[in-house]
Amino acid sequence: MRRLTWRPAELVDGSAETATARTLRFRVPGWPGHLAGQHVDVRLTAEDGYTAQRSYSMAAPADGDLVELTVETVDDGEVSPYLTEELRVGDRVELRGPVGGWFVWRPESKAPVLLVGGGSGIVPLMAMIRERRKAGSRVPFRLLYSLRDPERRYYAEELRRPEPGLDITYLYTRSAPDGVSRPAGRIMLDDLAEGGWPATFEPDCYVCGPTEFVEAAADLLLALGHAPERIRTERFGPTGG
């Protein structure tokens, strides 16, 4: 088994996704590549030697020695506020990865894909969407993206552009925009029945977000008859940020 090592990573680009989230693009010499859906450990080291590290999903498919992350600020966090508010182009951190091999999508797969994301859980799912596009895959994707309100939407411009074979449904939990018929609220059985794939199509289902959201969505998929082995989940919870 390949031993993961820490590698120096230089920020080459950073851009705001929302008022509290930032996409970061790092150059990591010697990066071994990764699969859509994997994550990476980020380590910061202070002048006095104190270190703090957190795990973040990669937002884009492999591209040479470049690694792209989208980070949401966690209140009172140790790592995320620095990455979203203080890190500048040319600054360095350390990365270790890629990590994970279950919650991944490979372009050679032929099964339809259902992506269910809650909040920042959209990040690894976006990597899969971008991997599909990069590979020229014709596998049909459906994305159900649950978020509090339109202002928290990641990758808004990119997802607004039509893409053959990719259908997107937005689910708002706190405040829905004008013209949306679905009232704001948590994900429900009807949302997955209408915006997802029938279980008889045997889709590969990827669910990512806060623990409570992931458990609820996975239970709903099971209730709709989806096979447990086709439901892959990635969850996150309070870690200190």
Automatic annotation (TrEMBL):
Its cofactor is FAD. PROSITE patterns: FAD_FR. Transmembrane segments: none annotated. GO terms for molecular function: 2 iron, 2 sulfur cluster binding; oxidoreductase activity. Residues 4-105 form the FAD-binding FR-type domain. It comes from the Bacteria. Pfam families: FAD_binding_6 (PF00970), NAD_binding_1 (PF00175). InterPro entries: Cbr1-like_FAD-bd_dom, FAD-bd_FR_type, FNR_nucleotide-bd, MRET, OxRdtase_FAD/NAD-bd, Riboflavin_synthase-like_b-brl. Keywords: 2Fe-2S, Iron, Iron-sulfur, Metal-binding. This is Ferredoxin-NADP reductase. It comes from Nonomuraea thailandensis.
